[in-house]
Every structure is written in structure tokens, then in C-alpha cells.
Amino acid sequence: MRKAPPDIPPEQDNRDDATLFRAAIGADAGKVRALPQAPPPPAAPKPKPSAKMARRDEDAAREEFRHMLVSALEAGDALSYRRDEITPCVLKKLARGEYAAQEELDLHGLPAQAAEALLREFLRDCRQHGLGCVRIVHGKGRNSEERLPVLKNLVDRLLRQRADVLAFHSPPASQGGTGAVLVLLKRE
After folding, report:
1. Are 174 and 185 in contact (CB under 8 A)?
2. Residue ranges of the Smr domain (predicted)?
3. What domains does the chain contain, in order, with CATH numbers?
């Protein structure tokens, strides 16, 4: 059997350790003062605000400025555009017709409003079906009343605005030349 310390009477020997410790250091008799309450730990610093909205605004302004720089295309002009993440090599392959069009849309001869609606629907369907390269025939615009190719300029403007369009270029003459455009699309 364990012996009790001399200053603790044997009848208190079955108390728990914490009580025995307090009695041994004199906490029960008021000889020990309590420590002051510890201050709460400092709050974690708030994360610095992200500049997502500012970045989006800058991207939108840059894209809008890019559209302003695009002047009206003439009948013999080639369409050409690539996003920054697409290499010039990919655009050259597109221009040489090295990508096979998986689907084609012919807008030739349609009124501008109908052509725009049809083009938007076509691109949405192509994206949903996971197509990577498509051809859009817009015609050369030689018979346009305004002496400028209306559909060609419409297609150029609309394709530049779409986030799902990675690049586009007029194909070689054997695939439509300046009366068509090959378009690379983002796949879902």
C-alpha cells in the first residue's frame, strides 16, 4: 500500500490526483493566487481581396478594344483570328486546311439577321456535340448592296466575341477560300 505524504491525513488518501495536488501546493488554503485569464488568440488575418472583378473588367475592355480595331473586311480578305492561348502554328495549320471540318454550315445568300441566329444555334449545337473543327460558308459578298461582304463581316465579328471559339481562318481555295472559314472550338 502507498504511503500518504506526511502533511496529508490518511483519510484523504483516496482523493483524486488533482485534489491531492491542490492540497499539496496549498491552493486550498489560499496560498496560491490564480493566474490571470490568458488573452484569446489573435484572429486569423482576413485574406487579401482577390481582383477577380477587376481582372474580368480588364479582359472585357481588352476584348472590346480588339473588336474596335477590326475594320470592315472586303470580298477578297481572309478571316484570321486566334486566342492568346493558341499558338501561331495552330493558326497556320488551320489556314492550310490541315484540320478536317466535322460539320458545315452554309449561310450563303441568307439575310444577316437569319444568318446570325442560325450561326449562334449551329455553334451551340457543335459545342454540345463536342465538335472541334467546323466550316462556315459565308460567301464572298460580291453581290452585296453595300459593296462590303455583310455575312463575312458578321461571321468575323460574332466568332471573335464567342468564348468557345479558339481560332478561325479562311481555308485554302479547295475548301472554300475567302468565302468560308474554318473554326476551332473548345471541347466540353
Report:
1. no
2. 105-186
3. 75-185 (3.30.1370.110)
